[in-house]
Design brief:
It comes from Saccharopolyspora hordei. With about 60 residues, this protein is an all-alpha fold. The protein has helices at about 1-20, 35-55.
């Protein structure tokens, strides 16, 4: 009997969760100026590394 009661309780909770209205969507915000600058600085560093790799003595390869 306890198993059926527990199953009914779980079903009721599942149905209540399914019927509940969906949560509102996350409000988008602009990235902060600092985060934008950090991102661009990181990209510049990365491109500089790749640019340095491209240059070199053609006889090395």
């Amino acid at each position: 009997m306890a198993n059926r009661q527990a199953a009914r309780q779980r079903l009721a909770e599942l149905l209540a969760e399914a019927v509940a209205p969906p949560r509102p969507a996350r409000r988008r915000t602009k990235p902060t100026r600092g985060s934008q600058q950090r991102r661009l600085a990181s990209k510049k560093r990365r491109s500089a590394v790749k640019r340095q790799r491209r240059r070199g003595d053609p006889d090395d390869g």
